[in-house]
Fold these 2 entries.
Entry 1:
Amino acid sequence: MAVEGTLSRPVSARPERPEPAIPHAVFGMVLAIICEMLFFSGLVAAFIVGESANPGAWPPPGQPRFPVEVTGVNTLALLASGVLALLANRAHGAGRPSFVGLLTAAAVLGAVFLGVQGVEWQGLIREGLTLSYSTHASFFYLLVGMHAAHALVALGGLVWAVAQARKGALGKGGLVAASLFWGFVVLVWPVLYVLVYLL
Amino acid sequence: MASHSIAAHGHSDSHGHHDAHHEEHWFLKYCWSTDHKMIAKQYLITGLFMALIGGFFAYVFRWQLAFPNQPVPFFGVVTPASYNMMITQHGTIMIFFVAMPVLLAAFGNYLIPLMVGADDMVFPRLNRASYQVFLISSIILIWSFFVPGGGFGGAWTAYPPLSAGSQFNLTPSGSTLWVVAVAVEFVAFLMGGINFIVTAMNARAPGMKFEDVPMAVWMIVIASVMFMMSVGPLIAGSVMLIMDQNFGTHFFDPRTGGDPVLWQHLFWFFGHPEVYVVLLPALGFLAEILPVFSRKKLFGYRTLLYSSIGTACLSFFVWAHHQFISGIDPRMANVFAATTVLISIPIAEIMFVFIATLYRSSIQFTVPMLWALSFVAEFLVGGVTGIFLGASGADIHFHDTYFVLAHFHYTFFPIAIIGSFAGLTYWFPKMFGRHLNEGLGKLHFWITIISFNFIWMPLFFTGIMGDHRRIYSFTNFPDLMTPDRILLREISSVATAIMGVAQILFFANFFWSMYKGRKAEDNPYGANTLEWRCPSPPPHGNFAVMPTVYRGPYEYSHPDRESDFWPQDEPPAGQGSVQPEGAH
Amino acid sequence: MAEQHPSHESGGSGWQPLARSVYSLTILGVVTVITAILLYIFAGGEDLIARLIPANSSFAGDIDFVILIIAGLVGFWFFASIFAFFALLYQSRRRPGHKPEYLGKHDHQLHTWISWPHWLVIACDLIIIVVAVKVWHQVKQVAPPADTVVRVTAQQWGWTFRHPGTDNKLDTADDIVTIDRLHVPVDKVVHFELQSKDVMHDFSVPVFRLKQDAVPGRTINGWFKPTKAGAFDIQCAEMCGIGHGLMPARIFVETPEQHAAFIEDSARNASVPGGQSIY
Ligand code: HEA
Ligand code: HEA
Ligand code: CUA
Ligand SMILES: [Cu+2]
């Protein structure tokens, strides 16, 4: 949402404002990301408290295991797309048109990640691990689900950026903001993966 | 109503068009504008309206408490359910739908661009969205009063399991709508906060160094940062609460490995910083008003700034003082008691700065000044009584008694009502291009202030004497039905009714002056800050020529000037000085 | 600046003397109120709080003491600030020929206004913290050995009290279970096990200065030692739903004889199945 240029209608007889150190869109996006980080740290804190609230077996025995391996690979896919987004920014900075392709690739990989997640969930639910199956399951769906929701939004941002780029209407601020948010989604995931799947 | 000012300069747009005189469809002008001043007025009016609801609820349950189980005039009989619902919504409304929108959103939107010399917020459309999301959340909240089962009645703190299970709170949809309303509103203020911070940092007029930024802007920015840093976890908690209520999860349900106290931590980790989020903007208004009407430089700009930042930081480490006896590890209480009491230091400094500003000044007791001064006097009471609660040992007795209520009404009322009145009466000429009526304003001031003290002073004592909160009728408690207690309660309730009626004066003055008031000059008070350097009311785009800032905002009564104020953007002597209006 | 500024004309020069009298009156009022309060405090001394609400437990006096210490310390600051405040309002009220003072960046002599109080406030804070933590520790962190133990169970919306019977042990056949009426012997250390069946409640006995949340899924232990016989209110002090205001209970602090009698005839009525009597 913060992907919005500054409003400065060129009004005559007005000395131009000194160019801000950080572009508005980037600044705004950084702030938004800080909020998001706190949001997720809230979830993680809750998860850890919940974990410590039932000592002993965690995850409780006799519950379907989470697909660690597939998700592991999936994680790599996500990280790769993050790298691609980064490269896209580099390219754009260097004025190389290849950045559009890189950005598209990043978006595609992101879509793949989300797709695989969806398939996994179907599997889990078929195995009977529903949202209300246990607190453990609830936390699983809460954390992973919230991340998925953010990934969806961030993916939207990437797609928007690609579309703009195709039109050649993509400003630097827009690109950086979009890839910043995507980067955030990418970097939060490993934390959740380790917390929810491995520990 | 807000219409008037803008209509004066029929110039309003979202983006692009420069044609200053083409009339716009009223909907686009009043409901779809991206002009920060219009959005500010939208927030203000919504906040005023919500304040009426919250105030009316206060009157109703106050009356019920003094004259139990008799029909309340203009309402009827108060049942336990409706009592709980009303106090809950009263608290929610007053904090989240009055204090926040008026102090932070309305004045933040109005003042920041004007005071830093910007033509608008840097994200105007985000700004518009912020208000619309807020409006939606207000509508959801009011809607929740009327759904089957009634509005949520589990107190504004919404402790689970009560709030998490409809078998406990008996308000299946009311409780969910309440959480949704509050969570959605948080999103609105996050959008606003991002806007405030970026605008204040990136869009300052050339020459405006950090120490030239008016205190009001600083305070609102610090408050926004605090809000952003504290609200995330609570939003997470709200999501979990909504899932518990509707999707059969058990995050807060002890029987299946959930932890009910977890919510309390999430809530108060936000809840305590929140009180300073609303405190700081009000302090910012004082920092603007006191110097202007005492014609004296603000005492200790840096002290004030650093104390506020100190308060902000410290406030993240005190939250458990709301949970001393909630079953947390008693050893934790010691730590939090210490941090809590220590927070008195920065706030004491802030108070001393304001008092010291008056030293050897020349005070005019105009209406805004009266409000500002009364803030200092009243807030001191609320502040020092907080220390009784922060002292863990004493809180064992005070927790959830009317002493707590009196404490925070002596802080919240000065902030949300007195602070808003101060800001509103001070900036009214700028906002609406007309003056409020002084005489009426003074009358309203005195009635409100006196009745306020009669409402809450007695309740300190009923609190010490054991009146507990959220009790719809004390008739069930023999020890609490002694004549002296009953008398104190009645004084308080009658005073509430009087205060409620007195608000008619305000609204009459407000709306009458908006259309019929005496036309306001650009700079009626002889103030220095930039908002007074553009027309009243300012057109869309604010400044004809972008101002350049040469000095701090509080240069009053400078010895080597004949004029007793020195506007921030007035070039130093020799650089073709602008004619200062209304010199001494 | 005034003359050109209608905002002040409107008030007119008429209200200046009026304001002056108003404010001098305010100051007078404040002064009298303060002296009254101070006199009351010194007259009241120790039992100032106890006059408002009886102090009937061993630690009630200590908690009142904390309250009074704080009242003294912050009271001093409060009145000092208020005095300075109103004095300044009067001293620097706007009047002809009275010029406000400009303090430039460099004159720091005024800053002692802040720095001195600053350190003094810190000192007061430390005193307050020490006193508060000490009493907290004594009430909530340690407990004297129990003479008897009761189990307090809260639920929407009532209290169940399980007294140990003649054998003074809980969970034995002769336990006495009562609803909304708690019987304890005077001058004996009573430990309580606090539980909740559904939502948060709070076991609060104002005359004991006692308060403790009941958290579902946990048992929270606490103690008190009543010092005066009589019947007092128990309140629920945590919002627990519609009936939160309808959850009153009474605590009967009994002399040894009375208490023995209570145990006696509840034992007699114990013919009720489960050996329990709703007392
Ligand atoms: C904006 C509102 C606001 C503000 C500013 C404050 C300020 C403070 N509050 Fe308050 N508080 C609330 C709003 C506020 N509070 C609300 C809404 C609740 C109830 C929530 C609920 O349960 O519903 C609450 C409840 C509350 C509690 C929990 C009570 C309980 O439920 O058991 C506590 C306990 O520590 C507390 C403490 C404090 C303290 C120490 C301050 C300090 O910031 C005050 C510092 C200021 C001063 C101390 C005065 C100036 C200093 C001097 C004059 C110098 C002399 C002072 C000393 C030497 C100490 N508050
Ligand atoms: C900003 C916060 C705020 C404000 C201003 C008030 C104002 C008042 N409050 Fe409220 N109150 C709370 C926040 C606030 N309250 C909270 C958080 C709770 C706890 C809820 C809970 O326990 O869950 C509470 C609880 C509470 C209780 C306890 C109920 C109970 O526990 O049983 C009582 C009882 O007397 C009470 C009374 C009053 C009264 C008489 C006023 C009067 O001062 C109100 C008078 C106001 C008006 C008559 C109208 C207001 C003014 C205008 C319409 C003009 C507006 C103008 C501008 C904004 C510029 N309040
Ligand atoms: Cu039980 Cu309140
Ligand atoms: Cu607090």
Entry 2:
Amino acid sequence: MRTPGMLTCTVLLIVGQVASLRGQAIETHNFCAVCHSEHAVAFRESIHAQEQMTCVDCHGGNPRARAIPQAHGNGFRTFAHRKDIAELCAGCHADPIKMKPYGIPIDQYALYLTSAHGQRLLQGDNRVAVCSDCHDAHRVLPVRDARSPVHFENIPNTCGRCHADETLMRMYGLPATVVDDYRDSVHGRALLERHNHRAPDCARCHGTHGAAPPGAGNAEKVCGQCHTRTMAFFREGPHGHTPAKRTHVACVDCHGYHRIEPPTHDLLTTSCGQCHTGDSPALRRGRRIRQLLIEAEAAIARAQQAIAAARAIPLDVRDYASWWTDAWTHLVEARIVTHTLSLDMVADHTRSARSIAREIQSEIYRKIRIFRSRYIILIIIWFYILITITVVHHYRQACCRATTTDSA
Amino acid sequence: MTRNTSPPEQIKRRSFLQRLLQLVMSLWGVGIIGVITAYLRPPRTLPLMGVTDFRVGPLDQFKKGEARFIPHARHPFWVIRTERDQLIALSAVCTHLRCILRWDADRGELVCPCHGGTFDLNGNVLIGPPPRPLRTFETHVRGGVIYVRLA
Amino acid sequence: MFGWRKWIDWVDHRLDRRAITALIRGFGLPATDRRSAVLGMLIIILLIMQIVTGLLLAFYYHPAPRAAYASTLLIIRDTHFGWYIHQMHVWGSHLLIVLFAVHVLGLFVYGAYRGRGEIVWITGVGLVLLSMQGALTGNLLPWDQQAYWSTVRTLEIIRAIPLWGTVLSFLVGGLAITPALLIRFYVVHTIFIPFLLWACIYLHAAALRRLGYGARTDTPYGTMPALQALIRGLLVFGIVLTLGTLFPTRFIEEADPFTTPSDIRLPWFLWPAYGVLETLTHRIGGWVLFLVLLVLLLFPFADRTRQPQPPGKSVTWGVLGAVVIALITFGYIGYIRGG
């Protein structure tokens, strides 16, 4: 205990020993944790630590040295150039033999180098994302772990760390609104509010490691991966195979990129007008389809009202309610089929929806009317009963005064 | 209420009242018979609460000439949509020894694999040991969906 | 008119028309103007109405657990006039019980149980009990929550009554509500009880005739009783229809054997019995009810007077008063104890 430094080191040593005794993979003689305790704690939770990796495997250095100069010797790396991080990770994660026991893909680095992030990194830009920015340098957790920054619901936040930063994005000429747009969209709400992990996050459309904006001509391929039927119908339609000289149309032209809202029939007026002008047949057809959808929706709403009115009486109408879902399904089908822009196909479904809804409505209202008319029927019948009794009474008087014998 | 009416008037009055009474009563009779007849006519819609109707599927997913076997637990049956756009539902249980029939698409007949009994689309026995024709089930299409009544 | 006579003569030439009229005359029901007879006529009319409406209902009803509910819903909601027919049947059954009970009281007041009136009395009381059984078995048939759970509680009451309860539970196939029980309820309700009812009425009329009250079976009925019956029939029809329309029975959701709703009531005529069972314990109460039934059925045998005559005023009022007070008291107890 000759210097305060030595005293400090010794105290920290003891503390570090106690701390390191709690560790799993960190050897009992690993003194990195003495000074870098918060990194050590973070690392302990990671999957690398579970696989018996240590600080030395990435950083080098001498874990048994108690003095800093020795500890930071022996090939110690600091990653001042972030390009080195990617190369380091790829050292294992692109090695088929090392990754074989885990069954993890080994193309991340290759994909990364094709991405916008990778390209700029190669050109010397030190601000773009590298592996540790998304996966965290020390606390690397599997995607399915809810604490991981690359877990489904955390991805918008992770990407947003840069892509929602206005100052940073201005330097690249990129908008900083995309994350907020996404949060307000159908997909964002599904993922972040309803915790539906099948909803696409940033990585699903843009790619994970090969992140690039899907260019024009590629966008609809992304959408079609989930919205398969809609895509199939779209390809059947006039927009699905536009001749080369015309502008290519894709999903994003009507539905938007990030702020995708629940589609309504109004899209048929707002988006068609972007390209089609005046009184073109295309615009007219769009209006016609919109009209069909509106009529079907109105019929279904009326049938729903009828069902509610009957329920209020109360009349048991559960069978009508389940039949109503048939009509509703037809409407949903009609909306999907709208992408063919074929009047016949849409009309087919809207017709079925309307006819079911109309039948439901008329039958239920008929039953309600009959139910409500029961007082009138009662009064009419009593009227007739009294007439009959009067006639019988008079007849009895007339006929039985004349006869002398009645049976007892 | 005594009145000194002469017998002929009395008789006329009585017979008038008699006819009136008969008229009134026959109106009651007609009414009651009318109500009973209206009541006994089966309602246009039976509740689709799954008591007897079996939902086969949408009509436009059923091609002409196609036959589908439905393995219903109590009444397995074949549904056939003929080329002439008729919907036929026949029991799939052979009336001989209750084997399940197979559909021969080329000949348009139901054939029993056990002893070769063959039935036509009306359920009648064409060849083989089955003693009785097949039971037919009523089909109807509602909202574009085929239903079979397996009462 | 309409060649009435001609048609009758045409038939009569081929078939002794008295064979047909004998069916009615053979019953030999009294057609006097005494109060009891009027009540009796009303009862017959109501019974015929019950049979007609019940038969019409049976054209659609399906006695299996889920199908019972669906078919009742079909009758009430989808058929033409089915709702009216159903309501008339239900209200008719309640009215029938009341009329039977009042009629029996009349039997008591007129002393018809005296002398050789034992059979008249027993068949009369038997008719009251049968009509209550009819209402009970019919109660389960719609298979909604009210039907199911009130029957569960009814079966508990039946279980409490010794001997007679055992016989009943054997007849209906146990005391748990199963599809088998439902079928037996249905058969008892539609076939067994109507048959017994008409048999009891037939014997009742025969006994009355022996005592000198009945109509003579060899002379034709005059027009008077037929017209009387017509008027009364129309009035009964109107009253039952009115009750059914203004105070319809509620048909709620389908029976769920795993959910007991909180507002289930026993049928009203079981409230006194339930009150007795709640006041005394079920065991003692059960025996009490059994003894009451026995006394009710057999007390004419204890009576030694030779001629049917009204019992003394004090006896009449005393007994009537006691019965009414007991019914009201125990009925009230049964009602507030969640009957």
